[in-house]
Write a structure and sequence with these properties.
Helix 2 packs antiparallel against helix 3, helix 5 packs antiparallel against helix 10 and helix 6 runs antiparallel to helix 7. The chain starts with 8 loop residues before the first helix and ends with a helix. It has about 240 residues and is mostly helical. The mean pLDDT is about 80. The protein is globular and about 60 Å long. The protein has ten helices and no strands.
Length: about 240
């Protein structure tokens, strides 16, 4: 049998529906790939138990003759993680953060694109969530999208805070459920907390002193610097 982790999404979907293999076999294969690449330190959160539980549910639904969802049996999350090359991923996102913020910075005329409405906003949020799960980069896409939308600093700040809180809270709950929150991690978090509070206080003071345009420029510069760091990390010799 072909290695299940080499199959495409469509091949996994069709093979599962045809009964060629179980969803649990697929999830187990991808979990093994993720575990084998753990030394790369490229995965933010690993949830193999959740993948197996979802696979069991898909297998049970197929066995019961229930109507299957379009991607039943396809472990989308771990499929992306297992196949994502960390260096290529960093370079791709890094180059994007070098180019797009620069173009927006040079575009001195304010932009206000309403294309897609709330559906487009939701798609950007979904994509940001995927990037957050893959590499902790949930923020760049929504931040850049807000610039294209032409939102003012108050609307941007409100959206960013709610979005990031939701993504990070979900990640924290998954980590707790997976047993990844250790005593050492709690201690390191406590050590970093005073610096986090200081940074939040300074950021709040700076926020009130900036105009909408200045706020946008500062955000774009920070995104550009993030892109520099990602490209450097992806190209630096090991």
């Amino acid at each position: 049998m072909t290695d299940l982790t080499d199959l495409t999404v469509a091949e996994i979907r069709d093979g599962f529906r045809a009964g060629d293999f179980s969803a649990r076999e697929v999830a187990t294969g991808f979990n093994a790939n993720v575990a084998a690449a753990r030394a790369l330190n490229a995965f933010i959160v690993e949830t193999p138990d959740h993948a197996i539980a979802a696979a069991k549910a898909a297998d049970a639904a197929r066995a019961a003759g229930e109507t299957l969802k379009p991607l039943a049996g396809v472990p989308i999350g771990i499929l992306l993680i297992a196949r994502a090359d960390p260096d290529v991923f960093k370079l791709t996102i890094g180059v994007f953060l070098l180019v797009f913020p620069t173009l927006l910075f040079l575009q001195r005329k304010p932009m206000s694109i309403s294309f897609g409405g709330t559906w487009a906003d939701g798609a950007i949020g979904f994509a940001g969530g995927i990037l957050g799960g893959l590499a902790g980069l949930s923020g760049p896409l929504p931040i850049l999208w807000a610039s294209v939308r032409g939102w003012g600093k108050q609307q941007r700040r409100g959206v960013f805070q709610i979005f990031n809180f939701t993504i990070l809270a979900a990640a924290l709950l998954i980590q707790i459920a997976s047993g990844l929150v250790t005593t050492e991690l709690i201690w390191l978090t406590a050590c970093a907390f005073p610096g986090t509070l200081l940074g939040a206080w300074l950021g709040s003071r700076l926020y009130h002193a900036l105009s909408d345009r200045n706020f946008s420029d500062v955000v774009l510069v920070l995104l550009f610097l993030s892109g520099v760091a990602l490209v450097w990390n992806g190209l630096a010799p090991r």
